[in-house]
Design goal:
Helix content is 42%, strand content 19%. By secondary structure, the protein is an alpha/beta fold. A five-stranded mixed β-sheet has the order 3-2-1-4-5, sandwiched between helices. The protein folds into two domains: 130 residues, 2-Layer Sandwich (Nucleotidyltransferase, domain 5), CATH 3.30.420.40; 171 residues, ATPase, nucleotide binding domain (Nucleotidyltransferase, domain 5, 2-Layer Sandwich). α5 packs antiparallel against α8, α6 crosses α8 and α8 runs parallel beside α9. It binds 5'-O-[(R)-(carboxyoxy)(hydroxy)phosphoryl]adenosine (KG4) and zinc ion.
Length: 345
Amino acid sequence: MEDHPLTILAIETSCDDTAAAVVRGGEVLSNVVSSQDVHNLYGGIVPELASREHVRGIGPIVRAALHDASCAMDHIDAIAVTYGPGLAGSLLVGVHMAKGLAVRFQRPIVPIHHIEAHLYSGYLEHPSLPYPSVCLVVSGGHTSIFRIDSPTSYRILGSTRDDAAGEAFDKIAKLVGLGYPGGPHVDRLARAGNPERFQFPRGLRDTSDDDFSFSGLKTSVRREVDRLRATGATLPLEDICASAQRAIVDILVQKTMRAADREGVRAVVIAGGVSANSELRARMQEEADTRSIAFVAPRMDYCVDNAAMIGFVAALRVTRGECTTELYPPSFTISPRALRADVTA
Ligand code: KG4
Ligand code: ZN
């Protein structure tokens, strides 16, 4: 690979955000995301609609990313794209766009694992953050704890056995009649509520592993809501939200910090949409402070699904020579369910 920092066009379409970015070395030159509002009507992501929206959006989004970075395709050295995990029909749109550009402009293509990109989003914003670290990836699709040892070495410590934490926020919000996505609504209402009023379960609190479970919480909230509705009383929305949020945050903080202690890490990172949660951020910061370790919750546009993190991880891998870019014809395929990167080229 060349000596000058590579300029990478990155594409991300794993779920319901159509995203493209241009990254040069560690620097983000542009980062464009279009979120698909069409799903709000249905209270959840409709895969078929997601891929259709990606088809509509991907061309203009790639053009916008190049424009914002003041780049033409001539300036692009390589193309990075998310190959998994995610929705098959969504992943295919980004991967086909990337392959089309690679063939047309004869550029190498770097397939990137979506969760790996989330893991390093803290390092994208804070390149001097120390290793090793523990990262909690917490979104509508994922709740997993990873140990990160270097720019290209990490391993999974634990994961949810059922729902993701974001899914729990969304389902609880739906139960009490709030909009989608539910996390921001619950976060807002919880600020005025009593988190001690309802004792909702903390799944797998007493197990020694780093796994999570949120299905019991959802059932418990549903029972409480049914009981309250049967009395004819108005739902105490703020208290329900505050108590449910407390249950989710308690277990996320407890298990992440226990893993951090056991692994002896120097930093804790949270990433994914749920890391926008105000209580989660505040509690993680407090716990990290008492341990005198660094804590990073990346800025929101790097926390949610975005292409800058895809380009950043591609640059890390390529410049360290730990990833051979695929030259035309690009032969890799999508991997909708892989929890950990099993493809390095
Ligand atoms: O990473 P993301 O944008 O998309 C994926 O799931 O891949 O995460 C979306 C999730 C949704 O479940 C949403 O309810 C949740 O993040 N979320 C929040 C907050 N903001 C977004 N959950 C709790 N508190 C928030 N402030
Ligand atoms: Zn994601």
